[in-house]
């Protein structure tokens, strides 16, 4: 398997706290991988390190075999890594389409090109019908999909999704799962942080489990939920897949 992204022995400390501790994993192109673990396990810090928002204390991040751990976030974005944030904040004085266009300005200064890419991104997340709506009219699920569309407008090869399904109703989450599957089928690689194990099992082909900053397990969803370390530290011994 050729890896699109590889993190090698990645660590990040905040004072005396080791938030990410010697973590290594690799993502194959077109795969959906879930990064899971209890609150404070280091998942968002991992995202920040991959996206260039934070520098590691030690370790390396390779994207398409190039070292990127000291690359600024704008340059990481131009290379093909886009992310969404846990808290979604669309720009309220702009339409849904205009919000989605923002991502495209990372690679073009043409308004026409940005608009056309933004439409395509909105279509792929099921929001094209609301392109001219105001963001105030959007549900939480729509706002999360708009955040995803904005990230897609940057033309990423790797999409980092931070809790994109948190707070959604089961039907909304199921529709997001379908969107993510379709995106992966087009060749997009996805790394997502997700707490609901049922969704992880449905959408991800690989799972990386963090606990106190360290990787404690990695494998298929079925392997991971059967791992005693994962049951003990995260899922609880009463968990049944
Ligand atoms: N900028 C920071 N300064 C100091 N400590 C931080 C900083 N960012 C994260 N931490 C700490 O690092 C640890 C890992 O945090 P992180 O947000 O990466 O965990 P997480 O797995 O994403 O948690 P959650 O599921 O709650 O979002 C936590 O103890 C957190 O308090």
TrEMBL record:
<dbReference type="InterPro" id="IPR051120">
    <property type="entry name" value="ABC_AA/LPS_Transport"/>
</dbReference>
<feature type="domain" description="ABC transporter">
    <location>
        <begin position="5"/>
        <end position="237"/>
    </location>
</feature>
<keyword id="KW-0067">ATP-binding</keyword>
<dbReference type="Pfam" id="PF12399">
    <property type="entry name" value="BCA_ABC_TP_C"/>
</dbReference>
<dbReference type="InterPro" id="IPR003593">
    <property type="entry name" value="AAA+_ATPase"/>
</dbReference>
<keyword id="KW-0813">Transport</keyword>
<dbReference type="InterPro" id="IPR032823">
    <property type="entry name" value="BCA_ABC_TP_C"/>
</dbReference>
<protein>
    <submittedName>
        <fullName>ABC transporter ATP-binding protein</fullName>
    </submittedName>
</protein>
<keyword id="KW-0547">Nucleotide-binding</keyword>
<dbReference type="Pfam" id="PF00005">
    <property type="entry name" value="ABC_tran"/>
</dbReference>
<dbReference type="InterPro" id="IPR027417">
    <property type="entry name" value="P-loop_NTPase"/>
</dbReference>
<dbReference type="InterPro" id="IPR003439">
    <property type="entry name" value="ABC_transporter-like_ATP-bd"/>
</dbReference>
<comment type="function">
    <text>Involved in beta-(1--&gt;2)glucan export. Transmembrane domains (TMD) form a pore in the inner membrane and the ATP-binding domain (NBD) is responsible for energy generation.</text>
</comment>
<dbReference type="GO" id="GO:0005524">
    <property type="term" value="F:ATP binding"/>
</dbReference>
